[in-house]
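pipeline/complex-builder :: batch 7 item 3
reading input block
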Amino acid sequence: MSDQEPIIVAFVCNWCTFTAADLAGTSRYKYPPNVRLIRMMCSGMVDPKFVLKAFFEGADAVLIGGCHPGDCHYINGNYKARRRVALLKEVLAQYGIEEDRLWLRWIGASEGNVFAETVKEMTEKVKALGPTELENELVA
Amino acid sequence: MAEQNLDTVLVIGAGVGGIKAAIDLAERGCRVILAESSPALGGILSQLDYQFPNNHCGLCRMLPAWERDPASEYCMRKGLFHRNIRILPMTELIGLEGGAGRFEATLRTFPRGVAPERCIGCGRCEEACPVEVYDGFNEGMGKRKAVHREVPHNVPFSYVIDFEACTKCGECVEACPTEAISLEEKDTQAVYQAGAVILAPGCGLYDPGPPDAYNYQSLPDVITSLELERILSGSGPTSGRLIRPSTGEHVRSIAWIQCVGSRNAGRGQDFCSSICCMFALKEALLVKERSPETEATVFYMDMRAYGKEGYRYHLQSAAAGTELVQCRVHTVEAGPDGRLYIRHYLEAEGEVRERAFDLVVLSTGQASTPEMKRLAGVAGVELNTCGFAPGPGLRTSAADRAGVFWCGSATGLKDITETVLQAESAAAEAAACAGVTSESPESPSPATRDVSREIPRVGVLLCRCLGGQGRDLPWEEIRGDIAAHPDIVDVVEADLLCRPEGFDEAVRKLGGKDLNRLVVGACAPYVYDRRLRKLGAGLGLREDLVEVVDLRGTGLGTGDPREKRRLAGSVVASAVQKQKHREFPGTAVISAVRKVVIVGGGLAGMTAALTVAESGIQVHLLEKEDRLGGETRQRRFTLDGGDPVSFLQGLEERVRGHEAIEVYTGTELIGFSGEPGCFAARIQTGDKGESLACGAIILATGCREAETDEYGLGRSNRIIRQGDLEAGLAAGRFSAGDLGRVIMIQCAGSRDPDGRAYCSRICCASALKNAFKILEVNPDADIFVLYRDFMSYGFMESRYRELREMGVQFITYRPEKKPEVEVEGDEVLVRFQEPILRRTVDVHPDLLILSTGMEPSDNRSLARLIGIQLNEDGFFQEMDPKWRPVDLERPGVFACGTALSPRNMEEAVIQARAAAMRAVILLGRKTLPSSRTVSEVRQALCSLCETCISICPFEARFRDKDRIHVIPSACQGCGLCAAACPNGAAWLPMFTDRQAMGMIEGLVD
Amino acid sequence: MTNCVRLPVESGNINDALKEFFSSLLEHDVVQAVFLPMRQPDGVMVMHTLVRDPKRLEGLDPLAPVTPTSTARLLSSLTFKKPGYRIAAFLRPCDCRAYVELVKLKQADREQILLITTDCEGRLEPRDFLELVSEAGDGSAMVFHERLERDDDTLPLVRACRVCEHPVHEGADIGLRIFGSDPENELVLCAQTNVGTEALYPLGLEEAKEPEGRGKALAEIIAGRIAERDSMIKEYGERTSSFAALRDVLKTCINCYNCRAACPVCYCRECVFLTDTFRHDPEQFFRWAGKKGRVKLPTDTAFFHITRMLHISTLCVGCGQCSTACPMDLPVMELFRTAANRTQARFEYEPGRSPDEPLPLSVFEDQEFLELTAE
């Protein structure tokens, strides 16, 4: 599968990052087709097992996008997401899963350019890393 | 030809005020026509917001909290979707006939040139357009074409033609792939019937060019506060770097000049713009955060950071290193070194100085606009002498027209909190005027079949257009990939689904296949969402069984055909999984008790009671004392000549006479339990207890005039408080001889970090009105007002100016050098620094008046009882002070009046109506729609660890014995509980773990 | 605050002394029940037993070097609803710490518990304990102690105990002193909380001092165990430094979920891996097999272990019950402590330290983990 483009699963919060992704998708900020969006109501809604699931299914990286601190539609869901990501990163790092395979980014609704840049940058980093070992979990 | 019915409210202007009013009315069950002269929603905020640092926004928190159509669950940049709101962009009011309850409004809609339902935002017209003009949105930063997007960062990108610039060359018509453009469109006019009208057109900002001596136009480093917002913004022209526009160098020193175009009667700007001081303090804080070494200096006359949190913010900004210089600014000139020299006069030192800065920011204030004047003329309402409209407060102005309500900055610039309050208040009045009953109509549900027990049979409908981006996709292969999915019954293709012909074709193709789920792959789902969901109706499917996925906004624009095929296939597969694994939750039912308990029978409590009662909902009004009126009973006159005594009497008569209001005097709340829509309130009158059922509660426990141990209060009968003076003046207790020389000391015990740390907001107005009264009794009285910052915000400023002109001496003092007071027998000595003589003077006044301000009633036990928070000063703490300013932490509990924040009578009335509106909206519905997402509990899996309770931001979960319960009216469906619960005992029916896992699998092929 | 009492030990029989102590707690109505390790009627295995009758304390054996199942979990089954009785519970330090976590998770009650712990020398796997009993009979606890005292390397102490840096628990109400003491002749019990002081007071026991050599002995033991712990974490950090390596360690896992059943802080009533979320449709397996050509069953093995690390590694007290429970002898404790070492450090969280310390994922601060979002 290594000849294929890497896949980034992006869990984007409905209010800010999803809007930014749309803005990017329909404006001049083109970004690579590597990112697959899942609209969540809030970045705080991203269960860590969704992130693991994405990796086990073969995602090369996971992006979680939320509102800037202070902007969360649900007051503080993004702060809770941040703690969860801190935990995930610690555990994944133990098993050699590189730092750049899981990003948390605050991307506001008007920041289509930031979304596009983020995806571009992540795609480049992940391409350099190559595929993960996690997707082989299913095969044994 | 008139359209619509009389329970319709017409809202003019879709800025924060107009949108908030429209949403509240729509939630209340009114039909709303929201007309906006520009093509986009959001007003000044859409511009501001783009520039705010960190993009602090929060606009979405205005959206309905209790009932939310899935179509309105989007960022408001994508538009506002509510079944009761009809939005008319590019439309203005040109005629208003009839009266309250029976208006006939004539609206003119300007041609857009581009049909929004056909425009796919591809931008080919913009490329083709040969006409370039100055770009108004970016305030001179660059150019745009005649065909353009009004707000560049809004989605969807619906284009619009600027017909003033357009040469009708027709290039865009040729270029448009969807035949959306017509250059021959004309203005259209229509007449609408409406029961009430809300005018929220906003106001303009002052142009600080000549004759003002700031050299704004000639010096690039002299900018306005709005321009500084843009420079500070991460997405602004300098990417957030604080640099001088002239040289690009880092800004080492920056100065704000306050009151540019405000407090300037000579320019016809005889008012204070109210928000500029807070704005400057905020900007200074941001600068200090960005660049701690940059010197930040604010040149001001009075630092009007008034009200509940104002002084704390003032101190916070000062503590961060902002230098505050009280002075008058003469000129800004460029020096030979290229820096900017501010000449200013320091009153305390009695001298003129000059200081140099890298950047000068002008805090420009409000200005009336021709549109405000035009609109007032059409509506038949008079503006004040400065060109602003009357607010929705105490109805004292004869210039009012019944049934027409103003809100927002057209009544004077205001911050978001005050705008939202005014909008809710105006909405409450408009709803009453339009005769809306408390029974909001339930959403009509079309006949659908129950498919919850059927095996999933998913149909897929693909639109091949995708805003012009879909043309070169390998549709055959994509279709083949998708059809291979075992759950998919059929894959149907259509073209231009957004057009009637494409839509009809799709319905035809999908019929007769016995589908029970439908996935539609198209573009920009939030635009077409509701329409495409209607496809379901044709198949007998509930709306939420139709999933619309955005195939366009997913980066399909680039990549090779193989990658595009992969992407399209995976996006559809993911949606199929989501529908396949969906659950069928039952309808959440709240049986609302349509009664409201109001604690406190003062001005705010009574106003709220009347507003609630007029909507047809019962009120129990509890007053601790044995008569109604509260602290307002002490008010005998107002600054603008109003008569609060008869106003309050009239209000009490209406309250007493209203059949839906039951008044309890000598009564206190002693117990409170339950959930929103269904509370039980225990009350006690004397030794008699009683239990009242209610659906919501409003706290309006008021305030009292504060005491102080400063300035000898209580040690001489010559030393009294403003309230005592008012009572004495009203009772005629003072003769001219008693009032020969009067000294007033402002901020007695207020704005003191060791005492009352807040500004009471009303004391300066009290000093003004009492000074006027004293001068009525003794025109020769010598009056000294010793103050720190004189808070005559808004249109009060003109009264302040009048008194100065009448010879009242306003003398500042610093908190570190307060006036001294000595009591010598019957005499009182006041010693203070006299700025003109520049020495300490001793004055023996006949009366010394202390402005002690207000303090909230002691609400500690009430707060504990109800389960809400007080702020450090003892005021009730709002859930979200900006966007939901009368909602408290516990859902279904609201507050208003001076127990929530210091405010004057008019402001308290506005807040009371806002609180009443919130309660009425809550109790306006009996059930929640089935498509609404409310989290649930799988009791069999639940270990009662209460993690979900602690993580819920809305207090929507609680434990009762051995079960966790969800309060449907409080739950916002954010899913934090589900993510935090380790085993899925907390879950969201519309987004289950299985759905999420399936979607992820679908996405990763 | 230390006030200690002394229990005289006659002819090396510590259980008689302890029996008198616990019986006295019941008789003075300091508590209405005691919960402690007792030899079962077969006279061999030791299990925790709830005793209300002071005359039925025969066979108690609190220091028997075995804990066949998590006693924190057992105690929570007595207290997840307010029991209405005061209970004196005798738990090892690791179980005390696990119990504190369960209190935070609302799975247990602390108020009605008189928590008694001991300086912990460690435990044996049940089968090793049975072997010891067959040699040493009733006196196995003292034999275990003596063999440890003389650094008997042949004693198969479980690895969790060898690397346990928390051989005492200061949050318990009363602590039994072993390190640096002379249990052959006397047992010293010290109150560590006000509740402990008040519980000891009515018993009228002879006052004592902290054993003199305890501080030094404890420091040595902790230093030794930290060294062992660090070398274990280093070893397993390296052994699982890639996902493939982790899979290699887990290759014999049979998804029996015994580890989570044995874990004291894995508190779910039903593991999410046994719920519908992971009960895949048959077609799912075929899709997977279609995607990669084949699929190994059971699936979700690493998924399960990593999810458990995400759920509870911050709360892991290192008791080792997971490894004890594993039928395939997987180094579950080693994997967990290696991960927990990272996650607990990340949140500066120490499980069991204090019931007032909030669970790391239930709180947040404005300005933290800023590097995560590239700010």
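note: The two ends of chain C are 47 Å apart (CA to CA).
queue -> next item
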